């Protein structure tokens, strides 16, 4: 869960700090008030690509920093351990620095890392959904995936997949036997 977001010289924002509380946090505002800029900033924290257009006009460096709550059993914990990135007090601090020269730096808990590593970890930290994305919920295959996750059907799905592969193999063998007989 994202607990804290700090933005400096990013797009139209001079300096901003937002603290998020557990549960639902809602950001509202008029068109042009900067809601999308906040979403873009969070996108940087989970591994999206940065561009120089994100740098506030007249400044040489922008910074976006976020603090995520990361309990030990979190799926990202093993990936962080593999990358030798320490996690203390169940907090993960992600910082992106964008410069006018085009060099962008990525840090997790003050360890400089490649963007690809952040992207791998970022998908485990947050899901960012854009406008009209809720329409995916009307897709029956998406509904089935949600239902399977909700019902904890992973073991049943694996069993069905194995049975299907076995059935396909048997059908293929029958087809080869019939072709050989002819």
3D architecture notes:
The protein is of the alpha+beta class and 182 residues long. Helix content is 38%, strand content 23%. A hairpin with a 4-residue loop joins β4 and β5. The N and C termini lie far apart (64 Å).
Give keywords.
elongated; 5 helices; alpha+beta; 182 residues
Q: What spatial order of strands do you see in the largest sheet? A: 2-1-3-4-5-6
Low-confidence stretches: none
| Mean pLDDT, all residues | 89
Q: What class do helices, strands and sheet pairing give?
A: alpha+beta
Strand count? 6
* 3D shape: elongated
Separation, N- and C-terminal Cα atoms: 64 Å
Summarize the structure.
The chain has 182 residues and is of the alpha+beta class. It contains five helices and six strands, in the order ββαβαβββααα. A hairpin with a 4-residue loop joins β4 and β5.
Which helices and strands, and how do they pair?
Layout: E1 2-10, E2 13-19, H1 35-45, E3 61-69, H2 75-82, E4 91-99, E5 104-108, E6 111-113, H3 115-125, H4 140-150, H5 154-181
Helix pairs in contact: 2-3
């Amino acid at each position: 869960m994202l607990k804290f977001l700090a933005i400096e010289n990013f797009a139209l924002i001079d300096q901003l700090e937002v603290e998020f509380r557990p549960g639902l946090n809602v950001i509202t505002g008029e068109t042009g008030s900067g809601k999308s800029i906040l979403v873009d900033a969070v996108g940087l924290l989970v591994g999206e690509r940065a561009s120089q257009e994100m740098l506030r006009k007249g400044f040489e460096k922008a910074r976006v920093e976020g603090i995520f709550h990361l309990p030990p059993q979190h799926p990202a914990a093993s990936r962080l351990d593999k990358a030798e990135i320490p996690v203390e007090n169940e907090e993960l601090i992600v910082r992106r620095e964008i410069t006018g020269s085009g060099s962008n730096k990525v840090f997790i808990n003050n360890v400089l890392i490649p963007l690809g590593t952040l992207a791998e970890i970022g998908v485990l930290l947050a899901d960012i959904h854009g406008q009209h994305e809720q329409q995916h919920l009307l897709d029956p295959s998406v509904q089935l995936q949600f239902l399977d996750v909700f019902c904890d059907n992973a073991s049943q799905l694996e069993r069905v997949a194995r049975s299907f592969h076995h059935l396909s193999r048997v059908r293929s063998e029958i087809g080869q036997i019939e072709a050989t007989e002819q």
